[in-house]
Amino acid sequence: MKSRKIKINWGVVVILSMLLLLIIYNIYRNVQLNSNYKYSVAKVIKIDASADGGGPIAIFTYRVNGKIYKGSAAISSKTDIYKIGRNFYIRFYPKNPNNSDLTEKPFNDTLRVIPPSGWDRIPNDK
After folding, report:
1. Phi then psi for 6, rounded to 5 degrees?
2. Which of 4, 20, 32, 121 is the most exposed place for a label (fewest CB within 10 A)?
3. How far apart (Å, rounded) are the C-alpha atoms in residues 66 and 71?
4. Distance between CA atoms of 31 and 42, rounded to whole angstroms?
5. 73 lies in a domain?
6. Residue 72 within a domain
7. Exposure of 41 by Cβ count < 10 A (0-12 exposed, 13-18 middle, 19+ buried)?
């Protein structure tokens, strides 16, 4: 009786493993951000096309505790609220401000002082 050998395509195994790790990492970041967050103000500095040919991406910067962070977020091509130079509230994880999420709520420019460590909630949000 002949035994069968199973050929393993290690390239496929490595790629699937990397995809699985990426999915788990994104879920972890979302759980962190949804469990504990603060708000600050982000400025849209660029609108780019996504690398995969999908919708546009807003590139933005924001400041937390004196340090400038840069992020990106996929935006709907059906909305034109994101324009270069406009400011929006951003939600970030205080222990790792790189973990952030751009909101669709424009920043109220009448506010003059932005706390260095951010707000617990969006000011004057009803």
Report:
1. -95, 125
2. 4
3. 16
4. 22
5. yes
6. yes
7. buried
- Tokens for 12, please give them: 């496929």
pLDDT digits (tens, 9 = 90+) for 48-86: 877 777 778 899 999 999 999 999 988 876 667 888 899
Question: Rounded distance, CA 71 to CA 90, Å?
Answer: 10
**Amino acid of residue 120:** D
Q: In terms of Cα–Cα distance, which of 114, 6, 112, 20 is closest to 68? A: 114
Per the structure, the complete domain to which residue 77 belongs is given by 37-106
pLDDT per position as a tens digit, 82-94: 888 999 999 999 9
Residue 55, domain CATH = 2.40.50
Split into its structural domains, the chain has a count of 1
Q: For residues 125 and 111, what is the distance between their CA atoms, to the nearest angstrom?
A: 13
- How many C-beta atoms lie closer than 10 Å to residue 8's C-beta? 8
